[in-house]
């Protein structure tokens, strides 16, 4: 019996998303290849057009068949690569056991890791989601491409375990946002322009202090909104200090959790500033970004 082929329009990113969605729906933390194959069989094809259970068994057999003497099945290779890509990202951890002979190991199951659980809980709001940056752009349409690119590349750093570089990129996203927020308040007349000094642009700290002080003293909308903006800007100040530490490798090491939290939290605060402070000034035409 011929195994139905994966449709050509199904990209590896689609397979990854199908597996993550299936994991969220499964309400368990241990998975075998048969589980992943079942998720794909039930999501790739229209309901009722295939025997999903039978197809999952056939895919599982092909995925586990790694005989070097014969050419691998292309669909099986793709499924295996997607699953192990999730392992490399730290979303799943493989559990192996020794065979009775004691001479070789076999794969027993894949365990959903803590960061994998957080991804499943948050889905598109998590930096390891393929929809992470597009979601941010939808929340803050005026956000510039360079800010979005910094957050996107920081998420890639998290995926590939390059934590220090990721922290630096998140810090750059925060600094760009602070500078534009300051320009927005100057453009609308809320702040006086700073006198430029040749060859010495104002520091991010000095601009941040000006924006924070103005928000605390002059934001005329709801108290809760003023408080949220103040907390967002104070967080960006912590992020600025973290970025400075990341620029000096001898000072501190960064973990996966540090970068994961940094991206997730900073994205929320950056979106808030773009929505409430920068966006309205851009919409009014008082400020134009080049």
- Average of pLDDT: 87
Provide the structure class: mainly alpha
Q: β content, as a range?
A: 5-15%
First-to-last CA distance: 60 Å
How do the strands of the widest beta sheet line up side by side? 1-3-2
Q: What is the number of beta strands?
A: 3
Number of domains: 2
Radius of gyration: 24 Å
Structural key phrases:
single chain; 290 residues; mainly alpha; Arc Repressor Mutant, subunit A; three-stranded antiparallel beta sheet; elongated
Structural summary, described in words:
Helices cover 62% and strands 6% of the residues. The protein starts with 11 loop residues before the first helix and ends in a 6-residue tail after the last helix. 32% of the residues are buried. The protein folds into 2 domains: 12-112, Arc Repressor Mutant, subunit A (Orthogonal Bundle); 122-284. It has helices at 12-26, 33-44, 52-64, 74-88, 114-122, 132-139, 145-159, 163-187, 204-218, 223-246, 256-284, and strands at residues 30-31, 92-98, 105-112. With 290 residues, it is mainly alpha-helical. It contains 11 helices and 3 strands, in the order H-E-H-H-H-E-E-H-H-H-H-H-H-H. It has a 3-stranded antiparallel sheet with strand order 1-3-2. The chain is elongated, with a radius of gyration of 24 Å.
């Amino acid at each position: 019996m011929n195994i139905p082929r994966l449709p050509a329009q199904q990209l590896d990113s689609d397979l990854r998303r199908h597996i993550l969605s299936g994991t969220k729906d499964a309400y368990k933390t241990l998975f075998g290849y048969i589980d992943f194959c079942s998720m794909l069989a039930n999501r790739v094809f229209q309901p009722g057009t295939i025997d999903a259970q039978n197809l999952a068994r056939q895919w599982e057999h092909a995925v586990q068949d790694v005989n070097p003497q014969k050419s691998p099945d292309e669909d099986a290779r793709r499924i295996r690569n997607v699953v192990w890509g999730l392992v490399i990202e730290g979303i799943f951890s493989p559990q192996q056991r020794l065979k009775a002979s004691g001479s070789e190991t076999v794969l027993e199951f894949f365990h959903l890791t803590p960061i994998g659980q957080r991804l499943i809980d948050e889905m598109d709001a998590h930096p390891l989601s393929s929809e992470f940056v597009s979601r941010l752009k939808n929340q803050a349409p005026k956000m510039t491409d360079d800010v979005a690119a910094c957050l996107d590349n920081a998420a890639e750093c998290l995926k590939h375990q390059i934590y220090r570089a990721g922290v630096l990129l998140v810090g750059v996203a925060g600094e760009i946002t602070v500078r534009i927020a300051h320009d927005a308040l100057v453009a609308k007349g809320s702040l006086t322009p700073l006198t430029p000094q040749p060859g010495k642009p104002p520091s991010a700290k000095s601009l941040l202090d000006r924006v924070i002080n103005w928000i605390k003293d002059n934001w005329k909308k709801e108290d809760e909104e003023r408080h949220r903006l103040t907390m967002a800007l104070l967080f960006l100040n912590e992020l600025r200090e973290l970025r400075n530490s990341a620029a000096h490798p001898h000072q501190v090491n960064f973990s996966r959790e540090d970068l994961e939290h940094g991206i997730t939290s900073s994205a929320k605060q950056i979106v808030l500033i773009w929505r409430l402070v920068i966006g309205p000034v851009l919409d009014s035409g008082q400020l134009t970004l080049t």
